[in-house]
Write the structure tokens for this entry.
Amino acid sequence: MKKIVVLGSVLLIALSAQAGLYRWVDDAGNVHFSDKVPAAASKKSHSELNKTGDVTKTVDPSSLQNEKELEEIAANEKAKQEEIRRIKQEAMDIVYKRDDYLLATYENEDEIKHSFESKIKMLKGNSRILEAQNNVLSKKIVKLEKKVSTVKHKDTLLSLSGKIVNINKTIVQYKQALEENETQIAKLSANYKIDLERFIELTK
């Protein structure tokens, strides 16, 4: 059977003397009344009573925890929305800066086209040079490999092998440069279309 325990003095005296009184239940199921809630009891459900002994407030720590979690979720959502707004603003700033550049750099659509064609021409010219150099080195590799097959002197063989290694490294670099050129050409082509359409929109 549950016991009712009053801490301090008689319940009626406590009710009349104290501004606040609390009702709580311990782990054994005993009901307690006191003017303060012990630390251990504060983690459990407890009630606040008025001077007439009526419950004025019930505190449920689990509910408070849920409220805290909801507050944290709300705070995280707010931070997320602020981050989204920041990213959108940065994107808009980039657009506005690009708009300013287009209007300050070009007078008409033909100038944009001419600028694009000039850059493409330069990149394609670089690609042709790289391809030509690559072909020269590839032929040199073939000659050196044939020569290696006929050389018997160790020092000469090492020298030729070293040249082949270095030439192959250069060929790899040329191929990378060619790939970068192709990427740049594709990027320029995409930007040209975007810039031209945006310029037309801005100058309508």
Remarks:
- The two ends are 88 Å apart (CA to CA).
- The chain has three domains: 4-59, 60-105, 108-202.
- Confidence is low (pLDDT under 50) at residues 1-18.
